[in-house]
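Protocol step 4 of 6.
Sequence for Post-SET domain-containing protein (Mycena rosella) entered exactly as in the expression construct, tag removed. Do not edit the line below.
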Amino acid sequence: MTVPYIPSHADFVVEFKPGDFASFLRAGRHFGQGDTLAVLNKATRSDKAYSTVQCGKESKDNIELNSDLVYVNHSCEPNVVFDLSSADRANWHVRALKDIDAGSPLTFFYPSTEWEMEQPFECQCGTKSCLGRIQGAKFLTRDEVVERGWVSPWIEELISEREEESACT
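Step 5 output, structure tokens:
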């Protein structure tokens, strides 16, 4: 018996496609730059998996999205960020990096939250600034991460630590 799909957010539409990782999330309405698309109050701590987002400096610091947000795919030119920077989890949210028209796919730059990904992949975003293999911020320069519009504080910290280590050698 197939369990019927029940949307978790009224402002999003999941576009179900056959194949692994082919489904994606569309905006159900217009969002302006800086708008909060969703609060991550249903996210729970979880072991690292493809459906989690890193929420701290340690690779074990992850949240399970537990919602339609799991269908927000990667892009090297993202239109949303997962802002988990507040010490107060009640303030964790998904925010628009730029204006998003109704019907547009929602995308975020995985290395903005992920230091070293459990499942690296060949990017298929097709943007002018596509980086190719996506493995996490550990494998990118500071500029390659920062120019995407937003970086989690722990990724900034880890990049700084890496730069300090290489300056000492």
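Step 6, annotate. The longest strand covers residues 12-15.
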